[in-house]
Amino acid sequence: MALAAVNPDLARARTQATFDPLLLTYFIYDGPEKTKRKRFLQNLAVKDCKEQRFCRYAELSREEQYEESLRKSAFAVLRIRQLGLEDSTEIRFFREVLFSSEPHPFGVHEVMFIPTIEKQSTNEQRAKWLPLAERFGIIGTYAQTELGHGTFLRGLETTATYDPRAKEFIINSPTVTSAKFWPGGLGKTSNFVVLMAKLTSNGRDCGMQPFLVQIRDLETHQPLPGVSVGDIGQKFGFAAMDNGFLKFNNIRIPRENMLMKHSQVLEDGTFVSPKNDRLLYGSMTLIRSQIVGSCGRSLAKAVTIATRYSVVRRQSEIIARTDEVQVIDFQTQQYRLFTLIASAYALIVAGQVSTQAYLSVTKETESGDFDNLPVLHALSSAIKAFSSWEMMFGVEQCQLACGDHGVLLASGLPKIYTNEVPACTYEGENVVLCLQTARFLIKSYNAAEKGKQLPSLARFLQAPKGEKNKLTKKLELDQLIAAYEHRAARQIQEANARLQSHLRRGVGAAEAWNRSSQSLVEAVVAFSQAFIVQAFIEKVTSAKLDPSLSAVLVQLCQLYALQGIASNSGQFLKGGYMSDHQLEMVENKLYELLAALRPNAVALVDAFDFPDKVLDSDLGRYDGNVYEALMDYAKRSRLNKTQVHEGFLKYQKPFVDFLKSQGAQSKL
Amino acid sequence: MALAAVNPDLARARTQATFDPLLLTYFIYDGPEKTKRKRFLQNLAVKDCKEQRFCRYAELSREEQYEESLRKSAFAVLRIRQLGLEDSTEIRFFREVLFSSEPHPFGVHEVMFIPTIEKQSTNEQRAKWLPLAERFGIIGTYAQTELGHGTFLRGLETTATYDPRAKEFIINSPTVTSAKFWPGGLGKTSNFVVLMAKLTSNGRDCGMQPFLVQIRDLETHQPLPGVSVGDIGQKFGFAAMDNGFLKFNNIRIPRENMLMKHSQVLEDGTFVSPKNDRLLYGSMTLIRSQIVGSCGRSLAKAVTIATRYSVVRRQSEIIARTDEVQVIDFQTQQYRLFTLIASAYALIVAGQVSTQAYLSVTKETESGDFDNLPVLHALSSAIKAFSSWEMMFGVEQCQLACGDHGVLLASGLPKIYTNEVPACTYEGENVVLCLQTARFLIKSYNAAEKGKQLPSLARFLQAPKGEKNKLTKKLELDQLIAAYEHRAARQIQEANARLQSHLRRGVGAAEAWNRSSQSLVEAVVAFSQAFIVQAFIEKVTSAKLDPSLSAVLVQLCQLYALQGIASNSGQFLKGGYMSDHQLEMVENKLYELLAALRPNAVALVDAFDFPDKVLDSDLGRYDGNVYEALMDYAKRSRLNKTQVHEGFLKYQKPFVDFLKSQGAQSKL
Questions:
Q1: CB contact under 8 A, A424 and B643
Q2: Residues in domain Acyl-CoA oxidase C-alpha1 (chains A, B) (predicted)?
């Protein structure tokens, strides 16, 4: 497509901004230097994509996506090495262009297989396997989940039985449900796995242990004898990934292939138990904090697409017999999009704040102080759940906001939805995570009741007193934070009361917990949102910003907080904490903020600084030339390879001819 | 797959029901006779599918789905004629098995093209075209939407210019944005369209008019000269449908091809204006009422799948060191699923009640009484929007409730989500519909303020007095209805107040409306939910039911109503209409209802009476043999055609060999 001028509506929208979006870009990418570096790397990647002629997934079949993904993966590895990139953030920016919301078959090799070998091997094992894995001499995945079993380790059925005579483990999949199922890259790409299996040695159940198991021949890539492996079929998104199944029929692996940093099996079969490993706890916390930020980025992509398109798109009229209106001028559309822009910023900031908190707590743990780790762990689980749900609903709203065209794969939105929403289940299913955090909160709440001092992140969990919120028309930021903290404390108090009341009536502890779990989850959601509101407001108010930018960011903070109050108003009204009058004010102000943000909408999404290649969207193009792009996309449809589709000759024509031969004897 | 016994957990769940699900099946399918007929037809269709060896879309590529869909469509037409089916409900039941949540390329021909010819033609036109269309001698679609323009008729750009000398219309697509875009069956299947185009005759703008335009040769199926037509590319779902684009380069059609029942162009180019057509208004009302029921059915499918799977699936533990628990025993899962079961029944019933209301109002209109039509029209728009949104969120929750496996196409859930959620935009985009209804409600509200008598469906729209809700632990059904009516009236009152306040401050009417539109939409949602709660309760309490069934249905009504109160609690608390204490009771009762419904969960979804073929889900199978089915599905994945995928030889091996040749010189 030839370069065209920017769509005039979009160009005009950019001139209306009251702040310089570049300043906001600096704010979220940590200053001008890092922004420059990010842009440099992403520009390189854009150039690479062009030169390599990587195809667009929206136009490929599943098999083609898998192949293209292999090609891109191989290219990415070599190119990143050639560029000497080592910083994980820099690598992420580079990859983001090549694999925009797209999984890749080497992904689990890089983020799970190699790190597991690093962390769970003995020194000898590391020396043997790590260099091999790093040069892809073996390609592996992490095989834990089974067809019938999820993240609950004790439920897994795959067995590893030690045979002391041969000094080997016998690996077996005794049932249908014991088949490994879902690991990424397992179906067609991997020749090795880290296998989680239930170890038996000398007749003793030694729990779940990790084993390094070869599954395919390193040369021919054929599955080894006794190994049944393959792809698990078409999914909602994730087409480029060969998620796989894997069954073993009593295959043998050497004793040395158990990863023995923690547990060990000696030659005679003696099992040596592990010491406690608190650092694992830590790395989960880090990963979850990072997911919060990446949910923010996913939402940011979707809302960038929907906002730009809503400026370009004209539809219907507000004032009769005038031009069709830019759909972004409808208040209902502003409500949808601007609250999501605020959300995206809030989540990105919350991810940064909690990652930062992780790093400082890690320093404490290095000096032997583990006090703050549980709070942070509880917090990161909760906000991971909250942010992935918020992202899911948000991306869905963006798609609705784009009407019919949002459904075209060329909009980029279905890919974001299908490939990012799994964040709700990976690294801990959201409900399960919320309930873990609930345990911590209930414990903290009861400790606070007994007058114990709580860690700062949970300090507001004291029984809410009879105070009232003092929010006025000025939308005082401290009152907004206070409102969320009060609500969270109150929700936790109520969930705890429910739990205690079951216990008092003689319900067993486990069942009482279960019967309170829905309200516990809701309390954790309130807790998460309180953290995010606070983190967003504090980051914005503590940063040194140009007043023009600061004004807009404060509006975003307010919008984010107000919308959460308006849509959960009962939890703020309860007990008379807020008044009907305040709630009405909250709603009025919310609508005023929508109007106030209108001139800045495009600048706010431009500031996310996504190259077009990352958005991969005909609707979200920076130049706004939406319709030409969609028409080009349409013309390239595979069904258009021939003017007359094969199906016409095979089925339609014979059918029509048959009806014709019958005459008009029968009616529809 | 060999027939296996029913999964024991599922079998046991069925024995626990306190009522006979068949009685509930009779309740929703209108008695034993109609149920019998439904089952007879669906069994026939199941047998047909087997004999014809129709393939499963979850295992096909897009092109294959299109072809298979043509084959099935042709088969369905012939078979339905052969069976002599004429009743639209019976045809729907038969088709539901063949095309479960799947679009088909002849669909628009049957539901839009033919009916438009019927309704908008003169007698001569009807005589000429209808028989031809009915025997598929011409196959058409309805081409209104354009690339740059949606449902707003006045915005369309395609032109039809009358040439009185040749007595022809010249059809043209003057811009990129004027291309027709999206019509179903347009891309590859249709050879005709009903085209909506902006008519100019004798230099006069005569507005949008319908034309019958041939686009492909009836024999060769090649596009006619001046016609550019094709498929629009891959979408989120709807793979089997060739949604298309269509551009005209000044092609000519005879004057007789304008559908002239209403407007006419005489030979000399004189334009004759139409009379008012109120019946169109009526048919939209009917279609929207039917969408409400079909959203209920879509949700019912999804929740049947998720509920059965939640009984079969075991995961984690409630009491430590006991067996893994059926996930349906987690309260959080019950909350998700049982509220959706209640929703599905509520929407199905609401669809029936409003369709019934339509039929009785139609009788009134036939005797010249149009008074109730506007209310009903407003109502059907609102509940169409409400129910499609509710379905969307519900299907999404069902998918989350199934964890990873819910994402496999074999779960059936992605198909329901992608192919049913468009109900949010077709037959009127939801927000637009809500705002139409808002106009009616605001008018009614102001009329009531002036003491005017309102039609019964809107009677509760009088300014809410200072009364309090009297709900007690007994969960009085009339108090639940009263609560929803009060809330709706209050929300409308508030939205109106907002509107009036903008007007008072001198904002123009159109802009004041726009600035109140988000609160108007929320008021319409409250209005819709009030109708649905009332319809559900009244249908259940007025039906003659076995007490065992009636008890469970009343629980469902209560659950549905309570959950709506709990999740919009602020709107019920405001003004002190409900107390904190009542709200707490609402929540406690809600959790009690979840536990009470647990033994009936499977019976409640069994009663929807979907054959496995309709669910098309390995997770939702009646026999619960989920894992065997999933493993079979996995093995049939197209990526498993060869053990070693082509991509390995093309990209992976060369890459690995290259890295090997480089030695371990570089690190990851």
A1: no
A2: 281-442
Secondary structure tally for chain A: helices H, strands E? 24, 11
Residue B665's pLDDT band (boundaries 50, 70, 90)?
low
Q: What mean pLDDT is predicted for residues B583-605?
A: 98
Q: How confident is the model at residue A667 (pLDDT cuts 50, 70, 90)?
A: very low
pLDDT at B280 over 80: no
- 8-state DSSP, A155: G
Q: For B637-665, b where at least 16 C-beta lie within 10 A, e where not — what string?
A: bbbbeeebbebbeebbbebbeebeeeeee
Write the pLDDT tens digit of every residue in B175-211. 999 999 999 999 999 999 999 999 999 999 999 999 9
pLDDT at B667: 46
Which of A179, A333, A571 has its CB closest to that of B631? A179
Residue A427 annotated among the catalytic residues of the structure: yes
pLDDT tens for B358-415 read: 888 888 878 887 778 888 899 999 999 999 999 999 999 999 999 999 999 999 999 9
B355 is in an annotated binding site: no
Contact A136 B655 (CB under 8 A): yes
A432 touches chain B (CB under 8 A): yes
Q: Could you say which residues from 226 to 265 on chain A have a Cβ atom under 8 Å away from some Cβ of chain B?
A: 230-238, 242, 245
Residue A161, strand partner residues:
A170, A200
Please report the domains of chain A, with CATH numbers, ordered by start residue: 138-272 (2.40.110.10), 280-634 (1.20.140.10)
> Residue B266 in contact with residue B162, Cβ under 8 Å?
no
* Contact flag A58-B651 (C-beta cutoff 8 Å): no
Query: For B404, which DSSP code?
Result: G
Res B63 pLDDT > 80 = yes
> Which range has the worst mean pLDDT, A51-55, A375-379, B131-135, B166-170?
A375-379
Residue B178 · residue B125 · CB < 8 Å: no
Q: B102, B146, B420, B427: which is the annotated catalytic residue?
A: B427
User: B235-255 pLDDT, tens per residue?
Assistant: 999 999 999 999 999 999 999
> Which element (helix H / strand E) includes A264?
strand A264-265
Q: Which helix or strand (DSSP H or E) is residue A47 part of? A: helix A32-52
DSSP strands (E only) in B156-310: 159-163, 168-172, 180-181, 192-201, 204-214, 227-231, 244-248, 251-254, 264-265, 271-272
Mean pLDDT for A332-345 is 98
Cβ–Cβ gap B238/A648 under 8 Å: no
Give the mean pLDDT of A465-476.
91
CB contact under 8 A, B319 and A656: no
Q: Which of A515, A510, A503, A502 is nearest to B318 (CA)?
A: A510
Check the CA dihedral B133-B138-B141-B144 and report its sign: negative
Name every chain B residue with its beta carbon within 8 A of the beta carbon of A432: 316
A228 by Cβ neighbours in 10 Å (0-12 / 13-18 / 19+) ranks as middle
| ipTM summary value | 0.96
> Tokens for A44?
């390189």
Question: Are the C-beta atoms of B195 and B120 separated by less than 8 Å?
Answer: no
DSSP assignment, residue B146?
B
Tokens of B625: 């043999």
Nearest CA-CA partner of A249 in A230, A226, A228: A226
Residue of B nearest to A573 (CA): B570
Query: Quick one: how far is CA A617 from the chain centroid?
Result: 19
Instruction: Give which of A238, A243, A631, A646 to mutate to test B binding, by max B Cβ within 10 Å.
Output: A631
Average pLDDT of chain A, as a whole number: 94
Task: Say if residues B103 and B419 touch (Cβ distance below 8 Å).
Answer: yes
A310 contact partners, CB below 8 Å, separation of at least 6: A326, A327, A328, A333, A337, A401, A402
Q: Under a CB-based contact definition with an 8 Å cutoff, are residues A305 and A414 in contact? A: no
